[in-house]
Write a structure and sequence with these properties.
three-stranded parallel sheet; Arc Repressor Mutant, subunit A; 5 strands; D-Maltodextrin-Binding Protein, domain 2; alpha/beta
Length: 195
Amino acid sequence: MELNQIRYFVELARILNFTRAAEACHVTQPALTRAIQKLEEELGDPLFRRERRHTQLTELGRLMLPSLQRALASAHDARMQADAFRRRETSPLRIGLEYSIPSLVLTPVLTALGRRNGVFELTLREGPRAVICEQMLAGELDFALLVETSDLQERLHRWQMYSERYVLFCPPGPPPGCPRCRERRRYRGRMPADA
């Protein structure tokens, strides 16, 4: 079953005249007639009853009409979606973030990406590591930012983004029990070399 056969059938069912249906489809009447005959052969019974100047749908034709109209509409929708995809002015970007990672870490990357590639449509999904990994493997995310651990899926490619050192800060007037602050008081501003 070809799309042009379906289109000719739907148009002929609407107009019920071979000559006018051929004109509406921008084909010759013999071409339209051949396409309808091929469709009838494929379906196994006539779709139209032809009586001189009158054309009527057969019982099979009436039965097939809604399904073939939906098929034609679906093909039209697919073509429209493809056209919209080619004309799109923004690119979709879907990013997953593990709950423990603040979205602010992406600001420099997204700013640079915007300068380089223009406008993009950003979707941020935050969640637990397991859910983010599942979404990555299902193709629902383009990339994700996760904390590196040994239990991450092996199938996911990795690139290390940050190597961080953590530093302890204490307020002035050290709290009781802070060994580094007690040590600072002992040296009165002079810290040992390893501090």
